[in-house]
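Dear colleague,

Thank you for sharing your sequence with our group. We've completed the structure prediction you requested, and as agreed, I am returning the results in plain text so they can be pasted directly into your records. Please verify that the sequence below matches your submission; if there's any discrepancy, let me know and we will rerun it promptly.
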Amino acid sequence: NEPGYYCNLGNSYLILEKYEEAMTAFTAAIMLNSSDASYYCGLGHSYHESEQYVKAIPKFKKAIQLDPNEAIYHYFLGNAYLNSEQYAEAIKAYEEAIQINPRNGLALNNLGATYLEVEQYADAIIAYKAAIQVEPNEAICHYNLGEAYDALENYSEAVCAYKEALRLDPNDDEYRTSLVTAQKKCRRFAKR
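Please find the predicted structure tokens below.
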């Protein structure tokens, strides 16, 4: 009975989207070795993927307690907070992930998403621009930047961001729809 076996089993179940089985496997790993942060992270990830965000939070916190310098644990904690609408806590978790790894494009993007949720659009734009510097070919970062500009009624900048998102992912209908909508708003705004 090796804890690593149960961790590998849990990761396999996560890939297969069998979250209950993954939870059982990670719990077994923790029972055999409660000092490995990755087991708690795996358990937290299992809860998160099954949309049990509130249950995921203490597991990610335990992983961070055991290994505070692992940026991904802070990132996952931020995701759990974001999805459970605990925005102030999500911002703190993403900022901690970014402090540990300033080139964490996912954390920067999700920090922007959190700022967008709380209508702090200028902060969202700063975070999205930083994410784009790290991940220039991630269409979602450009799209999200467009959403922030759109919220500020800066339609010309939104159009530019949506165009770049669509250039990077030409098959995304949501990007295309947002671009067309922003272009229409831009034309209406120019006629005022």
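Summary note from our side: The radius of gyration is 19 Å.

Kind regards,
the structure core
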